[in-house]
Design a protein that fits this description.
This protein is mostly helical. It has one domain. The protein has 3 helices and no strands.
Length: about 80
């Protein structure tokens, strides 16, 4: 019978941390697509540099989809 669960809990936490580290190392960033990283040479302060930001590209894509859906539904959501 186990009276002190702290040791088991600690080893479980250590194993989870090791597994998370291995998963982070195994997953690679996408090289193409909306979330692909792009090289940025200057800070984001105008429309051109915003277009290089993956989050901005995804937002514009969904905005385009929303606008097309609104056209097809006659202005209804």
């Amino acid at each position: 019978m186990e009276t002190n669960v702290a040791k088991r809990t600690y080893t479980q936490m250590e194993n989870m941390i090791q597994n998370m580290d291995q998963l982070q190392q195994a997953s690679a960033a996408p090289s193409t697509g909306l979330l692909a990283p792009t090289k940025m040479g200057k800070p984001m302060n105008n429309e051109d540099s915003l277009a290089e930001n993956p989050a901005y590209r995804v937002a514009k894509y969904f905005q385009t989809l929303r606008n097309k859906r609104m056209e097809l539904n006659g202005g209804k959501s």
